[in-house]
Structures are given as structure tokens and as C-alpha cells.
Write a structure and sequence with these properties.
45% helix; TIM Barrel; Aldo/keto reductase; metal ion binding; NAD(P)_OxRdtase_dom_sf; alpha/beta; 2 domains
Length: 378
């Protein structure tokens, strides 16, 4: 495992970090964490050299912080780096921030956070940071030693990112960065802004919620021909880790197999070569023709007021699109009950307003409804 120094200090987190948004659950599609399996996953991650663990207040229905606190309590506090995030959407006053911050310390069973972030900052939440004095509050917590490094995770346009970077003396930032979003969501411009401001980058969604673990057959053939022994997902992990200024690449691992594959890709880490980068560029060009819905499965859109399983339906469709077989959509989504299918959508727009990927979810759901109707007529 590679360990990169934070700004030439003795803070050296593992290049691969464990994201705790997609831990093993007791039921498929549920939020309740399977403590036995997830605990074993954390233990195996530690044995594999992972020292950076990323969680947030709302992950797993509010249960992820409590889980990671219990899972890491057996290890010496100085042996790992823990990151969590302030849920800006819940807060309006300094008292609110104090209450939630203390709750997070208690949840995680720690006295301080190594990395602490304002969560999912966009233009609206940037204004809220200024309005409620969130940065000033967190700076005080940093002065008290309860936060070691203060940053933010980001979901918006490059111009907004530049304004945020210029407004406060942040210690780091967390970006959604992968080889597809490099151009599709202007991740390259965002990354270059962090480089300009000298901010270390924590990478989230390097495999785009699992979407880049499999590509269309023609694109996969390009990558397999170049590196027969490597998984498709490993290309995404190595792409992010190859960028200068990246401190940690987070992966939301939900199975022992995913952990083993990621550890194999990073131990030892080998940056992408020029010829590998060229192969990846060709594969991306081919895969874009599949026209998948850019959903990462983050579940910020859930619960739907009308019971629609938004991430489940998008995942099923994307599997079909990648295989160039949208005619299999009914079969791929067959475990989703009728009450949670596209016809239940009422286009209220609540989901689209909170989607970090800015997907027009009601419009996409209307397309899936039309696809279903067409397939059922056959």
C-alpha cells in the first residue's frame, strides 16, 4: 500500500480509503448495516494497509457513524484517519452545529476528527456556510483540536468551486473524480482548480458508484487486451490515483471481493502508463455510446414520496445499456415490485433537486416507463 504525505507532514494516510456509504446491509437495497460482515470488511481493510475511513452523518440512514465508531474502537486511535461531514441541510444556528458535531464525536467514539468536511457543497450550500458562519464555527473546533484538517466535498460547476476555494483557507477538498466525469462533469477543471490553490484532493466515486466496474463489451475488450489480468474496476481506481495532488482515493466497498480487488490494484500501486491512458481513452469513447444514466447509487434521492426505487431502476437500466440489451430491462429489474416501478413516479421533482449528479430524474423515469410499456406490449 502506498502512503502519501499530507503537505509534507507526518500525516500519511493510505492512498486507498474505505468509503462507508455502501457497506454490507442486512437486506438487499436496505440501509441497516450487517455489523458482522461490515466489521469483517473493516478488519480486512486494516490488515491490507488501509488507514483512511470516510463516513458521513446521513450514510446508511444515520447508522454509518455509529458502526465505524464501534468497528475502529479496538484499534489505537493514532493508527487510523477518520473523516466525517457536517450535514449543512440540517443546520441553521451555531447551537445546531454544536449539537450535531458533538453527536458525531459520540457516534464515532473519538475525541477528534482527522479530516472534517462541509458535506456536498454546491452554490446554495456555499451561501449557507457564509450565512450561518459554518466555517468560523468549524475553525474554532480546529483551534480546540477537535478537527485536525478542515475541508469540503463538492458537487457543482467549476466557477462555484473557485469561489469556495477563494473564500476560506481550507486544508483539502473532496471531488467526484473518475475518467468518465473527467469531461462529462468537468472534473478535470475542478481538479485543476484544486491544484491552482494547492489543496490536496480526496477522490470520491472513482468507480462512479460501481458503474465503471463494467463497461460495454467492446470497451471492456480494449482494456482486457491491454491488461489481461486486471479487473475493469481497477482501471478507474488507478486513473484517479495516478493524478498528482491526490491524497486518498475512496472506494465504497460493499463486499470482500471488491476489497480484495482494490487492494490488489493498489498494492503495489502502479500509475497508468501512457499506452494504458491511450487504451482507456479509446474504451471511454466506445462506452459513451451506451448512453447510460449517470447515477452513482448514492441514494440522496431516497426515499421517494411515491415509493419509486430510483437507484434500483437506474442500476437495472444501466446494466442493460452497457450490454446493449435494453430489451432485458424487465428481466433485470424483475425484483423491483410494481409499486416501486416507473409508473409510480408523479414527477414531483423532489429527487432531482437533491441529486448530486444533477440528473433530470422525472424525465429519465418517464423514459423508463415508456420502455416498460413498449416491452410489455411485445
Amino acid at each position: 500500500m502506498e502512503y502519501r504525505s499530507y503537505r509534507d507532514t507526518d500525516c500519511r494516510p493510505s492512498l486507498l480509503g474505505l468509503g462507508c456509504m455502501r457497506l454490507p446491509t442486512l437486506e438487499p437495497g436496505g440501509t441497516a448495516i450487517d455489523y458482522a460482515r461490515a466489521g469483517a470488511l473493516v478488519d480486512e481493510a486494516v490488515r491490507g494497509g488501509i488507514t483512511y475511513f470516510d463516513v458521513a452523518y446521513p450514510y446508511h440512514g444515520g447508522g454509518a457513524e455509529k458502526f465505524i465508531g464501534a468497528a475502529l474502537e479496538k484499534y489505537p486511535r493514532e493508527s487510523f484517519y477518520l473523516a466525517t461531514k457536517m450535514p449543512l441541510w440540517k443546520l441553521e444556528t451555531q447551537e445546531d452545529m454544536e449539537q450535531v458535531f458533538n453527536e458525531q464525536l459520540a457516534n464515532c467514539r473519538v475525541d477528534y476528527f482527522d479530516f472534517y468536511l462541509c458535506h456536498a457543497v454546491d452554490a446554495e450550500r456555499f451561501e449557507k456556510i457564509r450565512r450561518i458562519g459554518a466555517f468560523e464555527f468549524l475553525a474554532r473546533k480546529k483551534a480546540e483540536g477537535k478537527i485536525r484538517r478542515l475541508g469540503f466535498s463538492f458537487h457543482d460547476k467549476p466557477a462555484v468551486l473557485r469561489a469556495i476555494c477563494a473564500a476560506y483557507p481550507w486544508d483539502f477538498a473532496q471531488l467526484q473524480l473518475n475518467y468518465l466525469d473527467w469531461t462529462v462533469q468537468r472534473a478535470r477543471e475542478q481538479y485543476e482548480i484544486l491544484q491552482e490553490y494547492g489543496l490536496p484532493c480526496i477522490v470520491m466515486e472513482p468507480v462512479r458508484g460501481g458503474a465503471l466496474a463494467s463497461l460495454c463489451p467492446e470497451a471492456e475488450a480494449v482494456l482486457k487486451a491491454k491488461a489481461p489480468g486486471r479487473s475493469i474496476a481497477s482501471w478507474a481506481i488507478r486513473f484517479a490515483a495516478s493524478l498528482p495532488g491526490v491524497l486518498v482515493v475512496l472506494s465504497g466497498m460493499s463486499s470482500e471481493e471488491q476489497l480484495a480487488d482494490n487492494l490488489a490494484a493498489m498494492s503495489p500501486f502502479q500509475p497508468l502508463t501512457k499506452s494504458e491512458q491511450n487504451a482507456l481513452t479509446r474504451a471511454v469513447r466506445i462506452d459513451k455510446r451506451a448512453q447510460r444514466i449517470p447515477c452513482t447509487g448514492c441514494r440522496y434521492c431516497m426515499p421517494c414520496p411515491f415509493g419509486v426505487d430510483i437507484p434500483g431502476l437506474f442500476k437495472a437500466y444501466n446494466r442493460c445499456a452497457a450490454a446493449k440489451s435494453t430489451g432485458r430491462f424487465l428481466k433485470e429489474s424483475g425484483d423491483i415490485p410494481a409499486a416501486a416501478r416507473p409508473a409510480a413516479c408523479r414527477a414531483c421533482g423532489k429527487c432531482a433537486r437533491v441529486c448530486p449528479q444533477h440528473i433530470g430524474i422525472p424525465e429519465e423515469m418517464a423514459k423508463l416507463r415508456a420502455l416498460e410499456e413498449k416491452l410489455r406490449e411485445k
